[in-house]
Amino acid sequence: MGGDIVIADCGDSAVVVKAVGGDTTRAWHTVHALADAFEAARPGGVHGIVPTYDSLLIEFDCFHTDHTTVRRALRHEADRLAERPLPAAPSRCFVVPVVYGGDHGPDLPLVAQQLGLTEHEVVALHSAAPLTVRCLGAPAAAPMMDGPAFPGPVPRLASPRISVVPGSIAVAGRQAVVSPMPSPGGWPLLGRTPLRVLDLDAEPLAPYRPGDTFQFVPITPGQWDEHAGTPLAAAHG
Amino acid sequence: MADTLTVHRAGLATVQDLGRFGHSRYGLPVNGALDQHSARVANVLAGNDEGAPLIEITALDFSCTPSTDVLIAVTGAPAEVTVGGVRRNQWEPVSVRAGETIAITGIRLGLRVYLAVLGSVRTPSLLGSCAPDTILGFAQTLRGDDELALRTHCPPIDHPVFRIPLFRLNVPMARFADSWTIDVTDGPDLAEFGDTAERLFRSAFTVTPRSNHIGLRLSGDVPRRVTSGELLSRGVPVGAVEVPAGDELLVLHRGRGVTAGYPVLAVVTATGLSALGQARPGQSVRFRRRTVADAVSAHRAQRHAIHALKSRVRTAFDALRIPATR
């Protein structure tokens, strides 16, 4: 079932909803179920719905609607959700081969040092268990995941890179991500997958959705060509 | 062969619209014209829907020639606008004969000029919008000798000799000056900055050259986050004012990534964002605190003015038998 929410204004054209009073999994369920329900209600003037981990941003054109109307509609949907159990979304697993370290993961030594681990231990933790996709975020439909079971959070880079190559595997804080497109980035890079993450002509744009899992699998640089350009696809189920 | 608009000097020009709406859940920024007000007015003055594709010209000189008679409107930052070598006004409909060159030079005070053509231009679109997305690598960036396909033509409507403006449309023009006052409302994470939040309003900030459609970077006496701890990534709106590191404020604009992990100190208003879309590197920006209610009222007033302009344009175009888009 849905948890409690608080709604705050976020400028003249947005409100932000935060799930409170539950654990992280429940907060995530709450904001995503609310996003689905709100989107299905097709509220006029709303043009952006961004559910993430424990937060939901609603963007609208304040010429066509207003904060009061949007807040009321969100409360209405949240109350309806509270009355029924959340449907368990089917989860699919994506197997993602990764070349760790070296040119593909230039920050692996730094991250290992910051965490007090060996590089091998960082790779082992990152590829140990499937990581759950929590939302699609910046840049461009990037799958944002729960971080691996590292002993602590990973600091962002002091100086963000101007451009990060597609397929880069990065971590920051308690989060993990795959960068689908070339973009600037301040997250330390552990490795790179040869898979093609995103197909701009596909519908929907990304093959994965929140709730799916990514299982990272270490490969050697020599195995890169076996996977190069293969589209990312669900392994089973 | 279809009628075209041939580009001579492209400078930094792209085909734009108001943005790619409805895909932020997939991590796609809205993008679109950075000065939405000027873009909307240009389209309305050219008889188009407010969101029709038009040309956004940034900072550098631009020229082009239509192969047929057209009606255009040029808005945005002050510039020298000539048609066939004759000086013409911005912020009003202008008739252009086939083969005459439209030249826009000397853009000043602001950064972006909008050129709309009656009937708009044919342009590729991605997910319902032609707005450039630099992360996806999608853009119709114009180059010299490019030919844009025109959708319609418009017989000449002004006096061929005297060039007296035919229109008195009371256009809601944007104001341009050497420095900017930008309205903001309090951000959801204001408390994370403690007493230092007031610095946002105490002195002016300077736009740095590292500013673009993704965000503007402003240098000055920046507020400091007084709390610590890792924030989970969450959705942040266009206009969010953040302090990532160092001595710069970051104001997110329409090309921003939809998620970020920095606290949001303030949010630039909808009308403020159009103005910021014109702020040049080196110019000074002062922030002014507004309530959300006042910000909404200001935005609505601006949009109502555009709607009122649209009805005046229709009346004038009907009288002159100009085929405006319905």
From TrEMBL, chain A:
Keyword Nucleotide-binding among record annotations: yes
SMART domains per the UniProt record, alphabetical: AHS1 (SM00796)
Under the heading Gene3D superfamilies, the entry gives: 3.30.1360.40, Cyclophilin-like
Task: Name the domain of life.
Answer: Bacteria
Q: Which UniProt keywords apply?
A: ATP-binding, Hydrolase, Nucleotide-binding
SUPFAM superfamilies membership: Cyclophilin-like (SSF50891), PH0987 N-terminal domain-like (SSF160467)
What GO molecular function annotations does the UniProt record carry, in alphabetical order?
A: hydrolase activity
Whether S-adenosyl-L-methionine counts among this entry's keywords is: no
What Pfam families does the database record attribute to this sequence?
A: CT_C_D
Indicate the segments forming the Carboxyltransferase domain, all copies: 5-208
State the PANTHER family in the record: 5-OXOPROLINASE SUBUNIT B
Protein name in the entry: Allophanate hydrolase subunit 1
List the source organism: Streptomyces endocoffeicus
Automatic annotation (TrEMBL), chain B:
Question: Which SUPFAM superfamilies does the entry link to?
Answer: Cyclophilin-like (SSF50891)
Q: Does the keyword Transmembrane helix apply?
A: no
Lineage top rank: taxon:
Bacteria
- Which UniProt keywords are listed? ATP-binding, Hydrolase, Nucleotide-binding
Please state every residue range assigned to the domain named Carboxyltransferase: 25-305
Output the PANTHER family linked to this UniProt entry: 5-OXOPROLINASE SUBUNIT C
Q: Can you name this protein?
A: Biotin-dependent carboxyltransferase family protein
Tell me the organism.
Streptomyces endocoffeicus
Upper taxonomic classification of the species? Bacteria, Bacillati, Actinomycetota, Actinomycetes, Kitasatosporales
